[in-house]
Amino acid sequence: MIEARITEKLNILADAAKYDVSCASSGSKRKNENKGLGNASNGICHSYTEDGRCVSLLKILLTNHCIFDCAYCVSRKTNDIKRAAFTVQEVVDLTINFYRRNYIEGLFLSSGIFKDADYTMERLVRIAKKLRTEHNFNGYIHLKSIPGASDELTREAGLYADRLSVNLEMPTEAGLKLLAPDKNRQDMIDPMAFLNKEIIQRTEEKKLFKKAPMFAPAGQSTQVIIGATPENDNQILQTANYFYKNFNLKRVYYSGYVPVLADKRLPALNTSVPMVRENRLYQADWLLRNYGFKVDEIVNNQQPLLDLDIDPKLGWAIRNMQAFPVDINKADLQMILRVPGIGVQSAQKIVRARKFAKLNWDQLKKIGVAINRAKYFIICKSNEFERRDLTGTNIKQFILAESKSKYLKDVTTQLSIF
Amino acid sequence: MTRLVYDGTFEGLLTAVYEIYERKLTTVKLEKGEYNINGLFENLIQVTTNEVRAIRVLNGLKQKLSPIGIQRLYIAHLAGIENDDDTIVSFIRYAFDYNRNIEDDYGNKHVLRISKVVGMMRREKHRMEAFVRFQKLKDKTYYAAIQPDFNVLPLLIKHFKNRYADQKWIIYDIKREYGLYYDLHDAEFISLEFSSVKGANNVMAAFSEDEEIYQHLWKNYFNSVNIPARKNTKLHLRHIPKRYWKHLTEKI
Ligand code: SF4
Questions:
Q1: Which residue in A67, A391, B208, B230 has the fewest CB atoms around it within 10 Å?
Q2: What is the domain partition of chain A in residue ranges?
Q3: CATH of domain A2-271
């Protein structure tokens, strides 16, 4: 009987939590020093859902009871669904037992708001505390900070959790007002600012005193839902960039809106999930964080939408043909990273290998460069390279003709007017 | 061409390198296994693994390569891919011949190949760190069976020992018929009787009472987190190739 009840709760509360797409369990450095259970460092995907997303954490809501009525959310109070709530002990047992079997890296706990923010937050914190102090659990814990919870509770959460997150939900304040009338943007920004200040201060302390406790070592992240409101990619990425810069966020997650509810403020129920667009946003985000691109180079007022048919790096390259061709044997790493078809690993290998001898096409290919894309943008130790004075548009056509894009069948150009 | 037959250990391979230099051999081919009588008329040397000689070669390598570079050779050898023993020997000879550290010379085909093989090993190691599924037995030991593409078990010790320090566990490679056992203090290699391996893997009687419950809960969880509207089978299969499914609780 008890088993059946837990199974039902798990089904309801995992189902309700799955629309939060963040799954990362990396970026922490919690070691197993107490001969306890687990550690948290690089993050492992233990499984993958049939839609290809990483399953790394036990991602559940403590409860899907909620006093709020956000239009895009299955748990909103006016939605007629089955409600459930875990006890503190149930969440602890599930986490420990899943972890011991190597199913998961840890726990990602979020919750609907029952009663009020503090009441909810207090329970989330209690679970994390119990795992850490009673079970010597050193695995990954990601807690959602409930907007409006007291600084005291948020601070306590930081002592037990590896990562904390407050979801912005909508890319702009106007979008939020429209779909989540109970929420206000400032209530989300306040805890982010508080956490940012706290993390900086604690990191300083930790530098001075090795024994100082860790505080949210994997930092904070946020999520924005895309496609539920009319913001364009420029607005979305500018927002992301602003939060990366000002709040030291570790990650911004983009969650393509899955139409689950009929509401005239929302896209119709049969609208497909904007998966290609979501993927392009992640690629753009990746360029910002790992390839040294500035946000304005990728999107701006003149260029507010990401191309759906080509990735943003190729997009940048064909708009900036004056920067090419790049000499693989001379150019610095930053420039090599900007060549379409060359990833971070290949770029690093190139820079190391060319110290021994100049590299030719064959070697570049073996190192892992996608020659069919890169060939329009580079020269190397060879007499054969692209000499035609091709325009960006030509190149795009050649590349598209050669590569069977995995998305080709669902590609449609983004509408400029929503 | 001279064929060198050695015992398949890394020490044996280093001893073979010693022989190559000692006898000033030029073109060589390494083979694992016993002396083969059919090779009577060929140039064939039986290498007897010799610790002193192996260490001499290793010390020589230490002058030429970084500790990581040497470890990579060990890992590449562990992979046990046919013909790659020759790649390792060529790599070592290239390292000795050159007056600077060559481990980043990816323009060289041997260096590049070693880096590929090490990459494959790393990937398999990561897969195992992800896909091991422990089942709790009556005596509270957590047991997992694996069938990795390559022999990565020795590379798993550190990860699992650090992570599961407070539970006893066994990870058993059924393909290569040996395993790792951690007894709360140390991890050691073991080999089980076939019947008991099968027993631990298949017979529910050996499970602890709550094992079935948690397997059931995990399967439920796995199904609940799927978003059918986003189904992408190709991506799914790229991440978890079918051959790994038989040991994944959520996929059985
Ligand atoms: S507050 Fe959270 S759980 Fe409640 S309706 Fe809004 S998004 Fe859903």
A1: A391
A2: 2-271, 312-415
A3: 3.20.20.70
Say if residue A409's pLDDT is above 60. no
Q: Where are the beta strands (DSSP E) in A282-362?
A: 326-327
CB pair distance less than 8 Å for B106 and A352: yes
A341-395 pLDDT tens trace: 999 999 999 999 999 999 999 999 999 999 989 999 999 988 877 767 778 888 8
Cα A364 to Cα A380: distance, rounded to the nearest angstrom: 9
Using an 8 Å Cβ cutoff, are B106 and B115 in contact? yes
| Buried/exposed code over A92-105 (b: 16+ C-beta within 10 A; e: otherwise) | bbbbbbbbbbbbbb
How many A from CA of A225 to the centre of ligand 1?
A: 13
Cα–Cα distance, A92 to A86 (Å, whole number):
10
Write out residues in chain B with pLDDT < 70, as ranges.
Answer: 35-42, 194-205
The whole-number pLDDT of residue A42 equals 79
From the list B102, B162, B214, the residue facing A97 with the nearest CB is: B214
Domain extents in chain B: 2-123, 132-251
Q: Note whether A100 contacts B104, CB cutoff 8 Å.
A: no
Joined together, the tokens standing for residue A85 give 């709530």
Task: Tell me the pTM.
Answer: 0.88
Per-residue pLDDT tens over the stretch A167-211: 898 888 988 988 988 888 898 899 999 999 999 998 888 888 888
Rounded to the nearest integer, the mean pLDDT of chain A is: 89
Q: Is the dihedral of CA B12, B18, B23, B25 positive or negative?
A: positive
**Dihedral angle at the C-alpha atoms of A312, A317, A319, A324, nearest 10 degrees?**
170
Q: Could you tell me whether strands A378-379 and B2-6 are parallel, antiparallel, or unpaired per DSSP bridges?
A: unpaired
Contact B130 A46 (CB under 8 A): yes
If we measure between CA atoms, which residue out of A113, A26, A32 comes closest to residue A69? A113
What residues have CB less than 8 Å from A239, skipping those under 6 apart? A168, A171, A172, A224
Distance CA B144, CA B167 (A): 13
User: What distance in Å separates the CA atoms of residue A296 and residue B174, rounded to the nearest whole number?
Assistant: 54
Beta-strand runs (E) in A156-289: 163-165, 220-226, 251-256
Task: Give the whole-angstrom CA distance, residue A121 versus residue A241.
Answer: 28
Residue type, A211: K
- State the nearest Cα–Cα gap between A55 and chain B, in angstroms: 8
CA nearest neighbour of A21 among B162, B230, B184: B230
